[in-house]
């Protein structure tokens, strides 16, 4: 960060929607993640070049939760509560109290792996915790309840001739279709009611991993607990089941649902209600297909796992890595446009828009006991960059420009607090 005295920090814009010339429109697309149509390009707001008055602009008042997000969180909590009246008796009936307790504890381990992955993916631009909590409870309770309610009617559609045929149908058709639909309903609600926070493929993957992690957590309780309740040798059977689901495939559900979240996130870049709903149904296709392929592995399980499932996992990791790289480049490009308008220096952009720069900046700030301020500044700068991306995407321009001005004022205050 610049070590200038706070009085040298530029003040708030005199004419908020008059910007200094920014990068050329052709240079405004740093990656495929943040493509901008030329007709949607707006210069970043400018600032007054006069000496700073020393009167620090007040940080913007904390914005209240939007009605859509509030309704989503409250409604999701109510649905999750009532879902437990169906889900808990179902689990206890299949596992018994001992199996349920052991299964619950054992299921925490693969859940921790998925949530750690969510933290790593979401670290650049963290999603609100209340929305992540909604996503988890939707997966762990509501989507399970939806599955339990739908699958009996779905099963009636299949005229099976024997128990083996019926079990094969339930595993390879019913489970992929019903479970992916139930999980992804939560993603659709997030996209429709919290679109400010679900505006790209990384957001879609983060929410999908969280929903799927919750679903797998409850499903693992069932499988682990049933391995104890229905077995004459519960110890070895539990170990075998845990190795299969907790070691070999903790991310299976996450990867299935992430394909839906990815496609919905790409659609969110070009916001339109019909397009987003259409993306929901399109995104279900690869999720159901991958789920079907996993459940269809039989006698040649190990060969399929090594030759198909591991490459799919590695491909998913590669895609997530590329998404993170593209997100970093997008952040840098948008902050460079504020740099051209006078809000940041190029040194500050390099610190705020690169992982290495952030680490060094926070380390420096910690040495002066200003680490929390620097962390807030890093987070605020990232949010500002993505607010600008929403403006350039042509969605809700007026509302996002108002957010932009508040965020710029907040950044000025944070910047002054950091440099002391």
List the helices and strands and how they pair.
Blueprint: H1 67-121, H2 129-155, H3 163-193, H4 201-229, H5 234-247, H6 252-268, H7 273-295, H8 301-340, H9 346-352, H10 355-367, H11 371-392, H12 397-419
Helix pairs in contact: 1-2, 1-3, 1-4, 1-5, 2-3, 2-4, 3-4, 3-6, 3-7, 4-5, 4-6, 6-7, 8-9, 8-11, 10-11, 11-12
What would your notes on this structure say?
- This protein starts with 66 loop residues before the first helix and ends with a helix.
- It is 72% helix and 0% strand.
- It has two domains: 67-296, no CATH class; 315-420, no CATH class.
- The protein has 420 residues and is mainly alpha-helical.
Low-pLDDT segments? 1-26, 49-63
User: How many angstroms separate the termini?
Assistant: 11 Å
- Give the fraction of residues assigned to helices: over 70%
**Secondary structure tally: strands:** 0
The fraction of residues assigned to DSSP E strands is: under 5%
Can you summarize this structure?
The protein has helices at 67-121, 129-155, 163-193, 201-229, 234-247, 252-268, 273-295, 301-340, 346-352, 355-367, 371-392, 397-419.
Which key terms come to mind for this protein?
disordered N terminus; single chain; mainly alpha; 420 residues; 12 helices; elongated
